[in-house]
Amino acid sequence: MATESLQFRIATPDDAEQIQQLVQAAFRTADSRPGWTGLIELASNFRIEVQEVMDKIVNPGNVVLICLDGSNTIVASIEVAKRGDCGRLSMIAVDDRYQRGGVGRRVLAYAEDYCQQTWGAEKFSLNALSTRKALIEWYMRRGYHKTGETSPFPREKFSNLALPDDMCFVELEKNFS
């Protein structure tokens, strides 16, 4: 897919349903790269409701940024929030058809630039599921490093699945300077 015609903007409530579909599909996608999607059973059971996305869009402490292709279709999204001097990044999703083509790098760079320009962010933080080793390595190639901190995985949402005992979110950070 051509990426030269990509445009970015802040999501509006009218975008919530499309973002919900994008995020859900991106998290459920099968990927042949070892450690990229992590646990297939978990990915296939991932759900996010339109109202959850809407809540993120209308929350004054957050901004959901979207990336559109030449036909004005949402192909990627990322949520950013200001936390002191830090830009917190989450809900990063790229349409299957655009993965492995540099869109994720562009979305991440755009979000970092947005946080720097809008809020004066001096560093960035995010987390990734510990089972998604290749994704964590991808973030590390973008300048992020593991902080040594972890946060719990919401096991209660997936009580029907046999999950690894040590599964958690790995906290990552990147300094601007």
From TrEMBL:
SUPFAM superfamilies, per the entry: Acyl-CoA N-acyltransferases (Nat)
Segments forming domain N-acetyltransferase: 6-177
PROSITE patterns: GNAT
Short name of any one Pfam family annotated for the protein: Acetyltransf_1
GO molecular-function terms, A-Z: acyltransferase activity, transferring groups other than amino-acyl groups
Protein name: N-acetyltransferase domain-containing protein
